[in-house]
Amino acid sequence: MTTSRIKAVIPAAGLGTRFLPATKAMPKEMLPVVDKPAIQYVVEEAVSAGIDDVLIILGRNKNNISNHFDSVPELESNLTTKGDLDKLRRVQASTEMADIHFVRQGEPKGLGHAVLRARHHVGDHTFAVLLGDDLIDERDVLLEKMIAENERTGLSVVALMEVDPEHIHLYGVAAVESTDDPDVVRITGLVEKPTKEDAPSNYAVIGRYLLTPGVFDVLEHTAPGRGGEIQLTDALEELAVTDGVLGVVFRGRRYDTGDKVEYIKAIVQLAADRDDLGPELRPWLRDFAQRL
Question: In this structure, what is the dihedral angle of CA atoms 48, 236, 121, 248, given to the nearest 10 degrees?
Answer without folding.
Answer: 10
